[in-house]
Amino acid sequence: MTETRNVVVAITGASGACLGVRILQLLRERPDIRTHLVLSKAGILTLRHECDLTLADVRALADVTYRPGEIGAAIASGSFPVAAMLVAPCSIKTLSAIATGYTDELVSRAADVCLKEGRPLLLMVRETPLHLGHLRAMVAVTEAGAIVAPPVPAFYPRPQTVGDLVDYTARRALARVGLWELAPEPWDGELTRADPADLLPRG
């Protein structure tokens, strides 16, 4: 019998709520994964503004949902087994809270638990341009063990729609935390098969 893996998905107030939604959709395809969703207060507002989905629609994609202030939730304890946590998107406020261990609500507390227990934590930080304070927070959270993965689009797969970009980015994030069965198609090495003469400078 396949062991069930718990995966936490948090959606915070940065732009890009579609990333968290797509991650939930992909995880729902796996019967061996149990998803735990936390929406921050700002995340709920952004979701309503950016996506043609109701809050109920998004909550229905997860197996378990929590309120942002629900500090007594299972995912707030290190004794509860979690395979990975993704914050998609991750606001600078959330990044900063995680980087400093300021766990005043469930998203940062669940993330802090992942760090202290040595579990994969991926933060899809969505902000630009970045000032020095942002960069220092990213360094601090990386030193603590988190994976900082801004949702930078990849164009070599030749995406045709925004949905293609979102799907690829979501799949890359899931692969990075060890869920390789949901990874995008691997690069087939097309460039390495090019005629070497085509790679030489002309003139």
From TrEMBL:
SUPFAM superfamilies: Homo-oligomeric flavin-containing Cys decarboxylases, HFCD (SSF52507). Residues 6-168 form the Flavoprotein domain. Its EC number is 2.5.1.129. Keywords: Flavoprotein, FMN, Membrane, Prenyltransferase, Transferase, Transmembrane, Transmembrane helix. One of its GO terms (molecular function) is flavin prenyltransferase activity. Gene3D superfamilies: Flavin prenyltransferase-like. FMN binds at residues 13-15, 40, 91-94, 126. The chain crosses the membrane at residues 6-24. It catalyses: dimethylallyl phosphate + FMNH2 = prenylated FMNH2 + phosphate. Dimethylallyl phosphate binds at residues 156, 172. Belongs to the UbiX/PAD1 family. Flavin prenyltransferase that catalyzes the synthesis of the prenylated FMN cofactor (prenyl-FMN) for 4-hydroxy-3-polyprenylbenzoic acid decarboxylase UbiD. The prenyltransferase is metal-independent and links a dimethylallyl moiety from dimethylallyl monophosphate (DMAP) to the flavin N5 and C6 atoms of FMN. This is Flavin prenyltransferase UbiX.
